[in-house]
Amino acid sequence: MNETLSLETGLKQQLRLTPLQVQFVKMLEMSTPELEETVRRAVDEMPALEATYPDEMTQNDHSSPSISTDDDPTPLYNRRAYNYSANDNYYDIAAAAPERGETLLESLGAQLALTDMTDIERIIAANIIGNLDDNGYISRSLIEIADDVSMQTSTAIDSSTVYNVWQKVRELEPAGIAAVDLRDCLLLQLKRLPHSAAIDNATEIVNHNFDIFSKMHYDKLRAAIGLDEEQLKEALSVIKRLNPKPGSTFATGGADDDAPQHVTPDFAVDIEGDNLVLTRLSHIPELSIERTFAADTPISESHKDEAALFIRRKRSEAQSFIKVLSMRQETLYRVMQAIVKLQREFFLTGDESLIKPMILKDIKELTGYGISIISRATAGKYVSTPHGTFSLKSLFNERPKDDNDTSTHKIFAMMKRLIEEEDPKHPLSDELITQRLNKTEGIDIARRTVAKYRERLGFPVARLRKKI
After folding, report:
1. Which residues are within 8 A (CB) of 374 and not within 5 positions of it... i.e. 6 or more apart?
2. Is the whole-model pTM more than 0.70?
3. Most buried in the list 53, 149, 316, 398, measured by CB within 10 Å?
């Protein structure tokens, strides 16, 4: 057997991000509040990093702040920070956490305290309400709850005992609580309503014809129950007034209940005559290298090498942070400038139908940045305008066809108007919407695209929109 050894060479390309690039990407993805917290933390943790806060700045100096580094004495850092005059438009987005409401568990617990029960029944009831989901539906079987209580109390609990307690819980407020499914939830609410012909018919529909009702086959439903059109309409009106999620009106009791319900804009676009003025909104201090870490700081001979190494390392760490922050701010600003340029008509009018087709590639052509950089720069970012606050991502939209310059926002508006103005007894199918867009608006669009846009608008198919 002949064995041979051979040596082959090849060229392989592999992209590796430097630590500075990794830090830049992470910082680029941050929202303004996250960035402000990151800067505050960096100032606390980096001895070579010095921050100049608003009360330390010269109030009469309206020039853009700068950052001093050895590599670049005046890099672009911030288009707008705290340096504003009395005549400037200053945006301070304050958020207040809403008062925490009563949770479903708290409400039911308070009602149970007023209910006549034995100690063991109270334990069972507590387990039942503890197994309700956020909508108020029971999420665990009665047999499983019986086993849980048996283990908890070291007492044999049968499912019939749990069933009896469950029925008592179902009598609590809000009506429909502790239901096993939607049909059960609606029936619980109907049973509490005073008897009338409409309510009796509604109960018949939910109790014995729920499948036909859920599919909105109204002709079949009317025939199955023997109602005329007016009687059916009254019965359906009763059902539509019921709450399919009786537990959803309560606070969830989670940590998010106390969180501020707001978004913080990263930019503001103001209108001055025919011009648009772009402003960065941030509460970031001016950063620089602390003077004791400057390159020319004198060092005693006895600890010269050790101290010099420490100073260089900390100075480099601070310089890198300042550089990455500057890169992040410059990138975001240039991306926002490009967006304002492309969507000028929208920012002037606030009319969302005037949002032009715009994709990440369009911003790339104006800024020279890569697609991934632009995607990160716009994710989770918001702009404040005289017409409201908008996410940057909402300003992007594709063309339905390469040769069609109508934006999806405009098509959305047209479709929304067509559906809202349709005859509820004869709702428009996707095919009819496609034909009307083509005939009346001159928009050539495929039916499957119309179906996709309708779903994104939150409208069901025509059959489910039908009303009598």
Report:
1. 335, 360, 363, 364, 367
2. no
3. 149
